[in-house]
Amino acid sequence: MHKEFYSDQDIPVFIEGQIIHTLNFISAPQRETIPLHSHGSGCYEIHYVAQGRGRAVFSGQACELAAGTLYITGPYVEHAQVYSVQDPIWEYCLYLKLDKGKTFSQLAGLFEQTTFWSGRRQFWAEDILKALFRELERKDTGYKIQAEAYMKLLLISLIRKYKQNHPDKRASTPPSISSRASLIIEESFLYGYQTLTLETLSERLGLSQRQTERLLLGHYGKNFQQKKKEARMAASVIFLTDTTKSITEISHLLGYSTMEHFSAAFRTWYGISPLQYRKQKINPSQDTV
């Protein structure tokens, strides 16, 4: 297996008048912990573990990952992922955006409503994903048409599985946001929380800083500083479980100028110090004052 990353492909899948755009295609080893994060309205990720082991957290619930694990996260589902150093994960990850049409589609509606699903031993998905990435790599004549066919096969197969446990109620729909803007915002906070500034994010979006703040408030209910602090704090608890890293080192990894600044921010957010949190995770039965 070799690392593959195809961005801004926008392979559209038409399902009964609705369009599901696949924007990013990734096949790669996971060498970094992915901190707790969530996606905005209409945004979904499909993850398939091809090999290795790890752990994912979905809305506070831990789940062991192994070869054949397939999981999907939709809007506002908080999730994080930690890899095993001894047996690192190689996964396929697809980033999708639902473009709702004017007419109701039962199939696309079921996809939209299912904001989380996971299953083990879903090896059928690997054959589809391998064929899909083969088309994207070779770029033979008509490869986008073939890629769309494989995506449709993958999505229809998933929707059939959703039918067994689909929710009864629809989630409320926040203000719309473009696929490109959504992807820029989520990747910026997920991977650039250490040094990200409002000015930098605004430049990436092609908006003024005031427009960017309005977009964040309307779509996520948080301003820039709240989103950045949320991303830092989510990453901090994952780093603290790695006892090979000192708290000073972690504070630098998170973009804090000093350990004292990080400790104060952590205590304000979680109510305890980073050291207390680490002790509790290492020895949960030990009372920490």
TrEMBL record:
What's the domain of life for this entry?
Answer: Bacteria
Q: What GO molecular function terms would the record report?
A: DNA-binding transcription factor activity; sequence-specific DNA binding
Which Pfam families does this entry report, sorted A to Z? AraC_binding (PF02311), HTH_18 (PF12833)
Which keywords does UniProt give here?
A: DNA-binding, Transcription, Transcription regulation
Q: Which parts of the sequence belong to the HTH araC/xylS-type domain? A: 179-280
Q: What is this protein called?
A: AraC family transcriptional regulator
- Which organism is this protein's natural source? Eisenbergiella massiliensis
